UniProtKB/TrEMBL annotation:
Organism placement in taxonomy: Bacteria, Bacillati, Bacillota, Bacilli, Bacillales
Protein name: L-threonylcarbamoyladenylate synthase
Species the sequence originates in: Candidatus Scatoplasma merdavium
GO biological process: regulation of translational fidelity; tRNA processing
Keywords: ATP-binding, Cytoplasm, Nucleotide-binding, Nucleotidyltransferase, Transferase, tRNA processing
Segments forming domain YrdC-like: 10-195
Length: 205
């Protein structure tokens, strides 16, 4: 595993933006827990992320887009899904959707579904826009360990393993709600988070 002189920087750091573009993994705050970020189109970045998290290599990561993200480029939608997106996105909701064909391997691991989230943190969305590509964004932790919520925790845990950590704290220790809409005719709760599933079901007609 590569080693770095880890630097604490802000979301406006050109160095951090270039680092992600160069297929390195960084960490940053979101409106839920602290997260890792890696270029979603890069197999090298994906492999680095798997190594840092000690995560099973066939378990896909969530795709996170910025302000300009277009869901329909990556997944099949219907009116129910569009209604959920218009109501809760950006925000602490991860949607598992039926993936479009021929997406880069790290986004789907050649599976039929893709998990997508748009953060409610405007600075993070702007950062992703500056990178110019959606990111793979799992929680910042070793798999099976509790997620971290601050740059100080991330620095203590991953110093030397990441080139950059964005300074700040997550505004909540509750993760995003995860729902599965990949069948298009039904919605299932995968993980209860900040958004109540009952509120989601009220919008599904």
């Amino acid at each position: 595993m590569e080693t770095y002189e880890t630097k604490l920087v802000s979301f406006s750091s050109e160095e951090a933006i270039k680092s992600v573009q160069n297929e390195e993994v960084i960490a940053f705050p979101t409106e839920t827990v602290f997260g890792f970020g890696a270029l979603a189109s890069s197999l090298l970045a994906y492999r680095r992320l798997v190594e840092i998290k000690h995560r099973p290599p066939l378990k896909p990561f969530t795709l996170m887009g910025g302000n300009k993200f277009n869901f329909s480029h990556y997944a099949y939608l219907n009116q129910n899904i569009i209604r959920l997106i218009n109501t809760y996105v950006p925000g602490p909701l991860t949607l598992i959707l039926k993936a479009k064909e021929n997406l880069p391997y790290p986004m789907t691991l050649n599976g039929e579904t893709i998990g997508i989230r748009i953060s409610g943190d405007e600075k993070l969305r702007n950062f992703i826009d500056q990178v110019g590509c959606p990111l793979l964004v799992p929680s910042c932790n070793i798999s099976s360990e509790p997620p971290l919520i601050s740059s100080s925790q991330a620095y203590a845990k991953f110093k030397g393993l990441l080139p950059y950590i964005i300074e700040g704290e997550a505004t909540s220790d509750v993760p995003s709600t995860i729902i599965d809409c990949s069948k298009l005719d039904d919605v299932k709760l995968i993980r209860q988070g900040e958004i109540p599933f009952e509120s989601i079901k009220e919008l599904w007609r």
